[in-house]
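Contributing new records

If you add data, match the layout below exactly. Sequence lines come first and carry their own label; structure lines follow with theirs. Keep one chain per record. Anything else will be rejected by the validation script.
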Amino acid sequence: LPLPLQKRQIGAVMRDFHRELAVGFATCVFDYCAPKGHVPFLRGRSAALALVRALVHCSQTLTKCYIAYSEIPSGVWTLLHRLAAFAFEAQLSEKAVTDPQVPGVTLTPECVYLQTLLSFIGNPYRLTQKEIVDVGTAATIWSAACRLDLDGTTGSFVIDPRSDSPPLSPTAEVAGRYWRLDATGLVSALENQVRVLHHQDGPIAVRGRLGHGPEISADVVEKLMLAWSFSGERNHPRLPAEHQMDTCMGLHAVHYLAAGVRDFKDFVGELGGGINLSDRERSAAWAQASLESAVPTMHKVRVIDQSLGGYRLFWENAEGMKAKVGELIALAAPVDEDDEDDDPRDWMVGVLRWLKGGNNDGLEAGVQLLSRRVEAVAVRATSEAQTSRVILRGLLLAPLAIDGSQHPTLLAPSILDSTGGLELLRLPDPHGMEERDFVEPLHTLDLIENTGAYKQFRYGDQRSEATLAAPEAPPAAELDEIWSTV
C-alpha cells in the first residue's frame, strides 16, 4: 500500500456499484410496503428477499472498502441500520431466504446484518484480502451464535441505529435508544474449536445451521476472538500526538539501520572466524543489492496518537512505500539538520498491524511496538549440510518493560527453516560491556509469530546479566531525591 491510482479507481467503481444496488433493493422494499409501511399479504417472501439483497450489497460495499484498505463513504451505515430496523419492525428479521446468488447458504436479514457487524468489529484492515473475503463468508455462518439485544440491556458492542456510525466500543455512551451485540456465545464456541486443534496453524472448519464456509486459520480466529471479546478497556491508554518520525520498511531495511548503516555483505565480513557469504548466497536474489536498494528509503510520518504498546501513524505521501500488514517497520526521532553528531541513531522496531488508505497517496497505519532497542545479527540453520548453510539476516529485540520478560527474542526471515535448530552469529559488543559468543547454537526454539514477512522466536535460557536482555525500566528510585532538588 498505497494501491496504484488505477486500482484505487477500480475499487471505487466496484464499491459504488454495490452501493447503488443496495439503494435499488431498498427502493424495492419501500415499493412493496407502500403506502402503509407494512408488508402486504403474500408479499413477505418477496420483501424478505429484497431486504436480504439490500443488506448483502451494503455489506459488499463495506467489503470492497476493506479489500482496498480505503475509507468507508458516508451513508452506508445509515442505510444498513435502517434496513435492519425495518426488518425487526416488520418481523422479517428471521425470514429465511435461499438466494441463488449465494449458493449453499441460507440467509436471513438478521444474519446478514450480524455478519456485517462481526466483520467490522474483527478489524478487517489488519487482514489480507483473501482473509477479508473468507472471514466475511464465515461470519455469516457464525452469526447464528450471536444475539442482538434491541433494548440495549445485555451484550457488549453498542449500535446506534439512528446514526451513520459502525459498532461502537462497549463503553461508548449514546443518547437515546441503542442496541447491543452479544458475541460471547460465538467466542466460546470458537475457543472450544481452537482448543482441540493439535497444531496452532491448523484451520478451523466453518459449519453451522446456515450452511458451511471456507476454513479459517487458527491464527486469524484468535485475532477475531480477541476483537469480539473486547471489553472496552485498553491495556495502555492512548495519548494524542502530532510529532514527526522517520520510518523505514522491511527486515532488510531494519537490519541495515541496526547494523550501523552497513549492508549485509559488510556486516557478515565483520563477524570474523572465517564467516563470509558464499558464492551461492551472493547470487541469491535476496542477497543482491543495487546502489539504489542498498540504502533504504526514509519516509516522514506524523504520529496521530501513541501508547506504551505502539503508535497510530499517518503518511501524507506514501507513494512507492509498498507497506503491508505484518511487515516490520523501523522508527526513530528525526535528525536535527544542525546536529553534526555522527553517533548511530537509536531505532525502534515495530510491526504493521493494520492499514487504511487515505486521500490520494495518504496512508494510515497501526503499529505494535516490538522493541525500543535492537541488535543486528545473522542466523543460519544447522539442519543443512555444512557446505550449504545459508546465512540470513536476523534481529535481537530487547524486551519491552510492559512485556514482563527478561530475555530478548529473535527475528528472522519467514523462509528460514528452524526445525533442526539455528546458529546465532553476533558481532562483539561495541561498548565492551558484554561478553558474547560469536557463534551460539540455539537448540530450543519457541515460535511466537510468523507474519509471512518474519518469524519471531523465544530461544534457550538467556543469561540474565546480558545487557541486551535487561528490560527497559523507569529511572531507579534512588534518583527521586535528585529530581526533587531540580
